[in-house]
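Lecture 7 notes: from sequence to structure.

We start with a single chain of 364 residues. Read the sequence below before looking at the structure.
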Amino acid sequence: MLAEISSQPADSKVLPRFATLDFARLRNAVMARNCMHGFKVLEEAGGGVGGTQLRLSYEQKIKAHMIRDWITNHPRIFLPLLAALLGTLAVAVFDPIRTFFIKARVTHSLKIRDSKIYKWFSSQAKDIFTFKKRSVEDAGLGAIWDDRRKLIDQLQTWMMETTDTFIIVQGPRGSGKRELVLDQALKDRKNVLLIDCKPIQEARGDSATINSIAQQVGYRPVFSWMNSFSSLIDLAAQGTIGVKSGFSETLDTQLGKILSNTTTALKQIGLEGRDKHDKDASMTDDDYLEAHPERRPTIIIDNFLHKNEDSSIVYDKMAEWAAGLTTANIAHVIFLTNNISYSKSLGRALPDRVFRQIALGDIT
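Now the structure, written as tokens:
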């Protein structure tokens, strides 16, 4: 179909003379050229003296702002594609950085306070200035830990065994759960990550919750403010085109990303000691971690089920993540809780496992 014919301006001196034919479809333009190229219009048919020979050639139709117009006219296609592209770039650029910082958090490689030199100077200074006071306190604490020596030995034994279940230390506030695990049972163990659920659960709003859990595991950089900005974009897109753009993510999705990055870092830490000359060199990574429980990092989840009546999404996500770590032999997981009904929450994550439990009473 011929859409428009534009003749050469009357005052134009360009030779040979020309006209522009604008076809509605490319197919019509191809057919016209195939049929009319080289055709000679005789003088009797109005072709002038000696006739006029037609020579047809294609001219690309130039569209100004074509890309901008396509984006404007196809927002339902462009916005999800843009969200997917930005997500892919974020994963490619920031995930290796985040994994590095999580590994540094677990191994304490960037903390001066955890260095041997700092600990030595700190202990010497405390011994000089608080000798008498520390002697009395150490004597009292020593009696408590001697009384709990069997529990400490039991925990240390479990750390050396291949197990695919949780270790739970339950007791009221002030029973010394964290001190028993961190300062006694795991005092000589490397690669320990402590996650305190209390600040996570007490955070107000999704951004604060994301910031809190990211700080606990060492996940950085974290752009929690982007969630609010993305929600505004989604709201605007839904009002204009009727569907969400896909920029914003739920709290559950973002927690899953942080914990997934943490899983990657933990597995890399567990495999760092491998050597191609070892007798286990032929093993797969999963088989190696299963055969060497002493190489696995230890995750301590403190204050589990703190204020459980407010919201369970954090605890459910944490239990689900911990179940994946234990069943895949990536890490040992120890829960510290005041709540006596912990089995209900953890049982949903590991329904067919018998938990290893230690119950503590008040320190008297």
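The first strand starts at residue 2 and ends at 7. Keep this in mind for problem set 3.
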